[in-house]
Amino acid sequence: MSRTGTRAGAALAIVFGLAAGTARAEERPFALKGTATWDNVGNAFTEVGANFDGVAQVTHLGKVGQGGTLYLDLGSATAAGIPGGGKVILTAANGDTLTFDYEGLLDPNTGLGTGTLTFTGGTGRFTDATGTGTFAAHLDFSNGFVGAPMAVTIEGTIDY
To answer: Please, what sign has the CA dihedral across residues 37, 40, 45, 49?
Structure first.
């Protein structure tokens, strides 16, 4: 074999070796269990939206702060509930964030919201995060819309 062929072969071996050693994203199970408090769920019916802040225990992040928004479309309500959606940001202790968009239905009689979510990235190791999941959130309206507590669970898969 010529020196040129040997060098080319060595270069390819190095390139493929580096590629094989590079970390690749892989689909992993994802779960979240948390609590939060809403500022005013009534604002979800306006362009202002309702906001929540809370904490959660999350696979791949540990204990996080969570915050998000909700917009509801009362004009599209059905017997199944009021459609809506929003965005959530999870912030880990090291500052990494993970974001997702969600949509679903809220039953105003029971306070149960259910639906789906799509991970949209974040920062740190979650910059290019993708994946999907389902959520169930129970909003307690027993004392009104202002300061309503919420318990939420999420199950899904994430790629990062």
So the answer is: negative
- Give the separation between CA 27 and CA 44, rounded to whole angstroms: 33
Closest CA to 117 of 66, 78, 79, 77: 66
Domains and CATH numbers, the chain: 25-159 (2.40.350)
Give the pLDDT band (50/70/90) at residue 24: low
Token pair belonging to 36: 């939060």
Distance CA 64, CA 111 (A): 24
- 39-63 per-position pLDDT tens digit: 999 999 999 999 999 999 999 999 9
Paired tokens of 23 = 């970390």
Is pLDDT of 13 > 50? no
57: amino acid identity, one letter:
Q
